[in-house]
TrEMBL record:
GO molecular function annotation: alcohol dehydrogenase (NADP+) activity; zinc ion binding
Protein's name according to its UniProt entry: Putative zinc-type alcohol dehydrogenase-like protein
InterPro entries tied to this protein: ADH-like_C, ADH-like_N, ADH_Zn_CS, CAD-like, ER, GroES-like_sf, NAD(P)-bd_dom_sf
Cofactor: Zn(2+)
Family label: Belongs to the zinc-containing alcohol dehydrogenase family.
Species assigned in the record: Tamilnaduibacter salinus
Length: 349
């Protein structure tokens, strides 16, 4: 065991505070990593505040981790001391089911092991995340950060990036397709960048007229203010794909009507029941598909980092001193960040 430092929440209303804990001893296939940067995801807030009723306290969030390798186990083949590497939303899986064998560990039939608030498959200890100074992770769940990428802006690619990249690739988005991106936060702005790089014509749906200029600045070809009935009416049956990044309940029905026949509406942000009720006729009458997608497997997570390096894509971030993490959470709840907070771990003292 090694003593580590981090920030943890010890109850649903405690906020985050400095916390010392023990990291497990490295196993033969493990990579030990000193953490340089960790992105802040809205999921972190849900776990800190126990919004989903599944938090095990104390909880140390963080699953957008970039750092440098400090040691490798004797069975490690792909990494060496000094490598810049990343760790995303999972640190293990059964490794033998059909999903894992297909490189889709996020859909492991036995359930993936989350980077934090998960249960270690070997010793049943609770996993602790990247709001800390170092981490120990199996080689299979570590990815290389290309030299061309800035380490800080690369961190959110490990969640916000792969979450939006994976469904666009899975459903075959390419030149000639019309893609609508619903929501313009950490996920949404990455979805725009990926869809554009894949050659699609991209439209952002936003609820606010005040965000139109910013949406175009992000690279959108068009902007639709979804609260404007005339604009939504004009958009009817015009999109091949909708990438829905909104993390709270919202009415899907007006958006479904914007799809062509055989169009696909992909949920990547909503984990709650659909409310209000879905009008199934909008699906049946046009053979439309309502789909969901969860992060990406390890091969695809490496792929998205390489894709970002090739296409000069990075996440727009605001650097954060970890001592201000509780204030940052409040700002995130208000949508007051463009577009992802990243913690500079040098501030962890």
């Amino acid at each position: 065991m090694t003593v580590a430092k981090g920030y943890a929440a010890e109850s649903s209303d405690s906020g985050l505070a400095p916390f010392e804990f023990e990291r497990r001893e490295p196993r033969p296939d493990d990579v030990s990593i000193d953490i340089d940067y960790c992105g802040v995801c809205h999921t972190d807030i849900h776990f800190v505040e126990n919004d989903w009723g599944a938090t095990v306290y104390p909880v140390i969030p963080g699953h957008e981790i970039v750092g440098r390798v400090t040691a490798v186990g004797p069975e490690v083949r792909n990494y060496q001391v000094g490598d810049v590497v990343g760790v995303g939303c999972m640190v293990d899986s059964c490794r033998s089911c059909s999903a894992c064998e297909a490189g889709l560990e996020q859909y492991c039939l036995e359930g993936m092991t989350a980077t934090y608030n998960g249960k270690d498959r070997h010793d049943e200890s609770v996993t602790y995340g990247g709001y800390s100074n170092h981490v120990v992770v199996s080689e299979r769940f570590v990815v290389k950060v290309p030299e061309k990428l800035d380490s800080a802006t690369a961190a959110p690619i490990l969640c916000a990036g792969i979450t939006t990249y994976s469904p666009l690739r899975h459903y075959g988005v390419r030149a000639g397709h019309k893609v609508g991106v619903i929501g313009m936060g950490g996920l949404g702005h990455m979805g725009v960048k990926f869809a554009k790089a894949l050659g699609a014509e991209v439209t952002i749906f936003t609820r606010s007229e005040s965000k139109v200029a910013e949406a175009k600045k992000q690279g959108a070809d068009h902007v639709i203010v979804s609260t404007d009935r005339e604009q939504m009416k004009a958009a009817a049956e015009s999109f091949d794909f909708l990438l829905d990044t909104v993390p709270v309940q919202h009415d899907l029905n007006p958006y479904l009507n914007c799809l062509t026949f055989d169009g696909t509406h992909i949920l990547v942000g909503l984990l709650e029941p659909v409310e209000p009720a879905l009008q199934a006729g909008a699906l049946v009458g046009k053979r439309r598909v309502l789909a969901g997608s969860l992060i990406g497997g390890m091969p695809e997570t490496q792929e998205v980092l390489d894709f970002c390096a090739e296409h000069d894509i990075e996440c727009d971030i605001e650097m954060l001193d970890i001592h201000n993490i509780n204030d940052a959470y409040q700002r995130m709840k208000k949508g007051d960040v463009k577009y992802r907070f990243v913690i500079d771990m040098k501030s962890l003292t």
